[in-house]
Automatic annotation (TrEMBL):
It holds the Pfam family DNA_alkylation. It comes from Rossellomorea oryzaecorticis. It comes from the Bacteria. SUPFAM superfamilies: ARM repeat. Coiled coil: none annotated. Signal peptide: none annotated. PANTHER family: DNA ALKYLATION REPAIR PROTEIN. This is DNA alkylation repair protein. The lineage of its organism: Bacteria, Bacillati, Bacillota, Bacilli, Bacillales.
Length: 235
């Protein structure tokens, strides 16, 4: 399918109901309101065309941008393109999922995560913390820098409640990720989770809730899944 055919198909798949839901969550125009499940059905038409995926993201249309993230090959994407994607991620769904998932599977995961974490721009910082969390979920333990992760845990412990709204959410998620995917730091992550307690995030006109890190991590323990890595974090 060509770029124009994909865009036309996205428009056909969009619905006012889904669009309202996304807008309640903070989505920015332009977009048609396509369910993620329907976007995944289009991946096969984009996946082998790297340039098409890049063009879809550059459209500025949320649905097309999310589809690009599902379709692009993270091993082919350049660091410069990832930085451009992060700058164009104008709401949390693109920052936390699209950019973070692709960046985490790229060759620049740690480098960009650490750079973005320090950004003054909320969505850029969100990209950073979410990228590192995703990176932990797919990376073998022997390749992880435990001292670096420990420093980031302490950073979350000391600053999460004073951070920007959506950064609070992904910092909490980072603590959960460490406690779930890094056995060597599981106890430390659980201690940080207990220290920070409930994290308050304005989720707008939605029923979404911020997971309590202690409860989430303990559920992973109960399921005997601590340290069990994922095959991919692109979703």
């Amino acid at each position: 399918m060509t770029y124009q055919e994909i865009m036309q198909k996205l428009e056909e798949l969009g619905s006012d109901q889904t669009k309202r839901i996304f807008m309640n969550h903070g989505a920015k125009e332009p977009f048609f309101g396509v369910k993620v499940g329907d976007l995944k059905k289009l991946v096969k038409y984009v996946k082998k065309d790297h340039e098409l995926a890049l063009k879809l993201y550059d459209s500025g249309n949320h649905d097309a941008m999310y589809l690009a993230g599902l379709s692009v090959n993270p091993k082919l994407i350049s660091k410069e393109t990832l930085e451009d994607w992060a700058e164009k991620a104008n709401w949390y769904m693109l920052a936390e999922y699209t950019v973070a998932g692709v960046a985490a599977e790229s060759d620049y995961a740690r480098e960009l995560a650490k750079k973005w974490m320090d950004s003054d721009e909320e969505m850029m910082a969100v990209c950073g913390w979410s990228t590192y969390s995703n990176y932990l979920s797919i990376t073998p333990d022997e390749e992880l820098d435990l001292n670096e992760i420990r420093v980031l845990l302490n950073r979350a412990k000391n600053s999460v409640h004073n951070e920007r709204n959506r950064v609070r959410y992904v910092m909490n998620g980072f603590v959960i990720s460490v406690g779930s995917y890094v056995p060597a730091l599981h106890e430390e992550a659980l201690g940080v989770a207990e220290s920070i307690g409930k994290v308050h995030v304005d989720v707008g006109n939605t029923a979404c809730k911020v997971p309590l890190a202690t409860t989430y991590i303990k559920k992973i323990v109960d399921k005997d899944r601590v340290g069990l890595k994922r095959k991919t974090c692109i979703c």
